[in-house]
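Fold it.
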Amino acid sequence: MAKSFGQNEVLKDVSFNVPPGSIVGFAGALAYPLLYVFGAEKSDGIVLGGGMGGLFVAIALQGVVGYIVEILAASSLRVASSLHILILYTLFGMVMYIASYFIALSIYQKREF
């Protein structure tokens, strides 16, 4: 079964248009609650681990973003798929960061000083 030209273009766009700011946002969202769990003494490892985790999250989200972009490309919206990719990664980053804030807040409230 042959794929259409449009699907190959969407997959190529998703693979090569991951915004670097989203990777930084994912890394921050992963590191933020971990700093409360493990403390500031282990912050170097947490930041490095968060950076790698942010990269892995961005790679893992490529499939999800590609699927959503294909659906949006098939709709009647006449917007470039690269704009869809930027918007989706930004939305995923914001959702992760907000969830990270509430996780860190619950950890902070449970912590005994």
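The CA atoms of residues 23 and 58 lie 6 Å apart.
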